[in-house]
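pasting for ref
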Amino acid sequence: MIGSHTPGALASLLLVLVVAPMAHGKANPFEAQAPKDLETRVQPQGATGGRVATPSAIPDIFGPGAVLNVGNIQMKITNNGFNGNPVTNLSSDPGAQWPGASGVEYLFVQVLAVGGVNPTATNPSAARRVSSGGEWRPATADPEDRMYRAYDGIVNGTRLTNDDSDFDIFTGEPNVDEDFLDGRDNDGDGRIDEDYAALGQQMYSCVMRDDTPAALANVGNEVHVPVVLECRQVAWAYSVPGFQNFNVIEYTIYNRSGHTLDSMYFGFPADVDAGPLNQSGYWTDDFDLPYFPQGEFTIPVEQDDPRYQATLPDGVPVCPERKIRINGHSVVDDEGDEGRTPGVVSLLLFGHTVDPLGIRAPRRVGFRSFRSYVSGTPYISNGAPSLDQQRFELMSSEQNIDPETGFITAEPGDMKGDYVAWVSVGPFLKVPDGGSIEATIGIAIDLGAHTDLLDYPADYVRYQAGLITVEDLFDKYPALENAFSAQLAYEGVYEPPRAGFTELVPDCHGCETGVKLPKGETPTLMSELCPEREPLPKLVTDNAYTWFDFDCDPCTGVWNAITDRGYYLRHWNAESPPPAPNVNVASTYNYTDNPNRVAAAGDNVITLAWDNIAENTPDPKVGDFDFRSYRIWKVAGWRRPVGAAGPNDEDWALLSELRLFDYTDSNFTRDAVTGARKCPQLFVPNYEYPAGHEHCAPQNAGVYPGRVSLGYGGCRDTATVGICLYRGDLWDRQSGQIVRPDTTVGCVRDDFGACVQDSGLAQGEQFFIKKTRYPVGRYRYVDREVKNGFVYFYSITAGDSSGGGELFGRRSAVEADGVVPQVSTRPGKGVWVVPNPYRGFRNISERSSAWDLTPNATDPTGTHIDFLGMPPGRWKIRIYTVSGDLVVELHDDDPVNDAVRGPVTDPQGNLQQGFNRQQDTPNDGQARWNLISRNGQDIVSGIYLFVVESGEGQQRGKFVVVR
């Protein structure tokens, strides 16, 4: 039933677009309302003692926002009714780049739209309405209504677990995953976000409504009349192999209108582009593929899969095979842009609310209608709808859908262009007030060429005829295998019910649907109507689920004949590496006003610091502490290619792999006679000898027996050295470097002042242990291979010991995470300018300022000169022309990267400015200027004078600019 918890049922959705300032001059393909607050950035208001609205309470579209970046698709997620980035003048975040931050886009925008019929409306114009795009806004102006980040295994977010140990007052069953992650007390127990379900290695959640003052203020082609809905949006990505090429978005729509809504439809309009951002009009040479990837594929069921359902006593399987249905459509570049755009991007429909009886919702997962067109095509010519009436008409039609198979029948376009597609799902009938419907979609990208994909319809027919296998299809169409893997992950696994789920599993063979009435409704009788089976009336109450075989399929509602009980269906079955630790270079931590910061940037040195959250997070599948090692990655020499939101996969270099030593208290022994400590002599390929012993002089042979002279003043790169380890140490097998926990760093404390401890199973055991949680600074790693003034990126990934090998998270960073080492302060008047002279050649590689980056929307020059050797304490720099005109004035507390960093909330709940200042630390002796005058103009060639005023007195100097 719609609005009830129906295990085994799927979820549903609707999308539409938002008009806002667009990138590259591209027009918005949808006729929708323009959010008024997209025109200017809203600045934070000063707190006056009470709670005030902050930038976190407005649409998360400005600057660096929520970007899924742990998989191969880097994709922007917002709380403004759309995903992707159609507002590149407001943010440099990627729409959906692949692979990684490659500068190759595959998504302009995907939008949310929901339509429904208000049966109580007296005005015909208000009866059928659609809420779309900018008509969705954060639920309130409170700071709590913002984007929230989590990951599978996070504290309080473990799926299918009673994190807060509470129970249903009516049934006595544990309450599980009852609190949505939104900063609110959703279950009325006085606690906030204490028991929710987190998915993937990176997840963002938010709440939106279509009846807020900001939503009502949207007036485009018509006045917005809300359906009065609440949307809970969850988007996530995976970092594990096999799951990195798709991102997932799940929508749950709640009826908050106060009355029943009828004939609800959800649409998925999306402008799916493909091409490099540095190519003008890259979106104009695409082709649509309405038929790809879609189809029904038969695969065998393994004997150890509960779906096999062997009968007694002969063991004959009830269901030796299963069918996997893929629903989706795609867009691909016409010829791959000479190898730069090798992928095909697909919008996939994983699931939505279903009704096996077909009374209140569709019987199976599938699209209701489909329309694909070149942007700008009018509605009357099968183009974009511009009014709610047209949107509802399109969503409720059955255009281009085969009623027999449910698959899309539209032919691909015969000319390349900027393709936009509309698909819809529904109808959902008689959704009660407070009831909900769900849908889950995905954005998937994998290899695929237009010429090959044209063969897919014929190859699918050959597959159906048994002439080729599904493996043959996967070999030819990697994007099809990717979609298949994603669908398989969504459909999940059947497992024995955990504590608290006994009523959420079937109590009869083949029963896939559980029905429970809303509280207070009168019990009623319902029957199954299966062919060749006598109807069995069952009493349905508001107290517990009553299970039915409504679809008359023995392969659903999986049953164990041996234990005489059902199984629980857990969607989204995927391995989970430990979460990446919190690192001091992250933009949400590395800001000047952070009172708890371990500063990363030093003088020709960067000190990485991180916490132990990866070690304290149990594996979400088996519940044990299975952490094994950290990998430290680095990017140097990044020049910000056009469209890049951060380093791409090829930019990263492995600095170190640090393994946890926890086998025993220590690895050394004592000499039986002298009692001296003896450490194991280990072969280390690249051991870094201590200062003063860099050469292989013969007299050092006894000190370092593994050191062998090559006879010409050099040394071998390998040695056998003593490595002394204590429990809890991290060590690198290649270099012999040891990173020890900093025991001077205190634990993370709870509201009562006690150390926070995380519980999990000891690995390979069935007893629980506790681990103390420590903040950033628990571990430190020093990198001296850096130059002052240049930007560097770091990523620390964590690995576990699952599956006989190690499973690691994915390295990633965005531009806002960059860290720049700085010259130390110097007493006196010794300030100098670098580079001097500055030569602003058009070709960046020819400039003397080797730290210059490619300009973008948030950094229109991409260049800077730096004043080095600044004095300690407060200072001010004035820059003049030779004629004495003031060009600009710089101060020690000026922001340097506020264009890419917004406000952040610190661990104490206080709002902080998230940028770095010119004097980032007391020892920061470097100041930056982007060569923009106080009037906002690029300066011209000439000689410039500067005056530094500080506690050290006044200093004068000059520098030259050549352009």
